[in-house]
Amino acid sequence: MKSLIECIPNISEGRRDDVVAAIRNAATSATSGVLLLDSTSDRDHNRSVLTFLGDGPSLLTAMTAMVEAAIAHIDLRTHKGGHPRMGAVDVIPFVPIRRATTKDCVDLSKKLASQLAEKFNLPIYLYEDAATSEARRNLATIRQGEFEGLAKKMQDSLWMPDYGPSEPHPSAGATVTGARAPLIAYNINLGTADLSIADRIAKSIRHISGGFRYVKAMGVKLEARGIVQVSINMTNYEKSPLHRIFDTVKSEAERYGVPVVGSEIVGLVPQPALLAAASHYLRLEADPGPQVLENKLLDLAFPASE
Amino acid sequence: MKSLIECIPNISEGRRDDVVAAIRNAATSATSGVLLLDSTSDRDHNRSVLTFLGDGPSLLTAMTAMVEAAIAHIDLRTHKGGHPRMGAVDVIPFVPIRRATTKDCVDLSKKLASQLAEKFNLPIYLYEDAATSEARRNLATIRQGEFEGLAKKMQDSLWMPDYGPSEPHPSAGATVTGARAPLIAYNINLGTADLSIADRIAKSIRHISGGFRYVKAMGVKLEARGIVQVSINMTNYEKSPLHRIFDTVKSEAERYGVPVVGSEIVGLVPQPALLAAASHYLRLEADPGPQVLENKLLDLAFPASE
After folding, report:
1. Between vectors from CA A263 to CA A181 and to CA A199, what angle results, nearest 5°?
2. In this predicted model, what pLDDT tens digit does every residue of A267-303 receive, in sequence order?
3. What angle do CA A145, A147, A149 make, to 5 degrees?
4. Which end of chain A offers a freer environment for a tag, N or C, measured as fewer CB atoms within 10 Å?
């Protein structure tokens, strides 16, 4: 059965709809093995986030064609926007979804890096699970100084690109690629209007202040509902799972006499994250994934490899 | 988007593998819109259970072709087996899986009934959610007397078939069709060897003795593990859901100082049944189904209707 990998390129163009469409179409028309799941453009950020899904080889073809189109249409020397960026295609993460491992995605990002460097003379950095050193794990660190500071940064031997030349592409800068776990945006709503309680609970669960390793969190006020929320980014749902975060927030909230009135997932969520929660609370002895009827359909719809 | 309906015909042949294959192939070669998910034959019962999946019109085509093949190959006048049966094709239930309602499946079963009656001069009974009277809801009641008692039973005006002639097909008897909710076989394991506790808990949750409407249950000894189990058949997981059954068993077990040590789903389970459990325990404010990444894939794989 073919691998299914999610690929979420961030493009430094969020205002010219025709340009975004051309770049998007370059990816989907290069191969029949890639599906566009979503395309979201932000005018203030002047940035678009595309979500593709496909097997490894098809994504390699699609991303190479897409980068070529982005280089043809985007010139960072005149690009302005609210979001930090260092490349025409700023970052290309690969995320394992089905019949694919982190290692598959790391290998894929390296293949792509090598191909982009060679074809377009574009410097490439590897990040997250594909990073070649701890200092390069974090996208924000790699991108510090942005496009404008890139030529100088690359002269520092610490910041030599992983692939390609040691100077930025004149108009397209540099691109970051790599592999990461799926992100889940998850919010837990509290039956109180006291923001300080949400803040304190957020602090108790987030990694930076002593909480779960793969959790970022902050308190947020929901003005319209008159309540507060613990707003959570989960960067690895296998290692810091939904049920454990939920139960901890619930238990911390009890300490203030505050109930959890609900929770919400924002955007897409991988099925196994929810099945793991069901499995935990129902004390299932086996992973129910292989027994899910709909997964039999997926096996049939995306059958044995090419 | 095309409907996805499960169809699980029970065929009165479980010994001649070539005949089962011929009957199965008649269904799948009649249309490209139907997938065979499973085929299980029981020699003692002399019966096979086939599991198909497809949209309504394709299943109609497939089942009509399958019944034709079964009539050609099976003669109930010489059929022997441990399982009660009244037809060459004994029963054809339709189960809504995706973008299909119970009503869609009821309509489909009536269309099939009409078509089978007309084409093969076969008497048809409607059961479960398609039943035309309460007395005909239950398959066991309709089938009482089996093939051998059918001619006499049909003379009773109470048991006139819903479609077709009022006498059995000479070799193929009569067929039952209808619509029902998906079944889930679910077992909850208790940390005790005392079967009477499992029996008492089973009694507390099963419909017949005052429990949940869509639950059948009994106590079972797991000799190898030295524990007991509440073995459950769920006939409607939307109305009597997993989490409510689990929590009730857990609470009843506590009354005896007995822990729930695990639980298991046997066979296939519809994804929404597990998502509902996750949703309940995580207090999700919206059904997460539309946000499940894999469901986007299903939408793409089984796209808008013909």
Report:
1. 85
2. 889 999 999 999 999 999 999 999 999 888 887 776 6
3. 40
4. C
Q: How confident is the model over B34-38, as a mean pLDDT?
A: 89
Q: What angle do CA A41, A137, A161 make, to 5 degrees?
A: 85
Active site residues of A: 83
Instruction: Please tell me which residue of chain B has the smallest CA distance to A288.
Output: B265
> Counting every residue, how long is chain A?
306
Optimal mutation site among A282, A292, A299, interface B, most CBs of chain B within 10 A = A282
Nearest CA distance, A252 vs chain B (angstrom): 15
How far is the C-alpha of B88 from the C-alpha of B11, rounded, in Å?
6
Residue of B261, B292, B297 with shortest CB distance to A269: B292
- What is the mean predicted confidence (pLDDT) over A225-245? 96
Task: Say what the pTM is.
Answer: 0.82
pLDDT in tens, A72-118: 999 999 999 988 999 999 999 999 988 899 999 999 999 999 999 99
A208-212's contacts with Cβ under 8 Å and 24+ in sequence apart are A211/A248, A212/A240, A212/A244, A212/A245, A212/A248
Of A37, A260, A293, the CB nearest to B269: A293
Residue B174 Cα, gap to closest chain A Cα (Å):
30
The ipTM is 0.81
Please name the amino acid found at residue B221: K
Q: Is the dihedral of CA B300, B302, B305, B306 positive or negative?
A: positive
Q: How many CB atoms lie within 10 A of CB B102?
A: 17
B190: distance to nearest CA of chain A, Å?
11
Residues of A in contact with B292 (CB under 8 A): 268-271, 274
CA-based nearest residue in chain B for residue A296:
B37
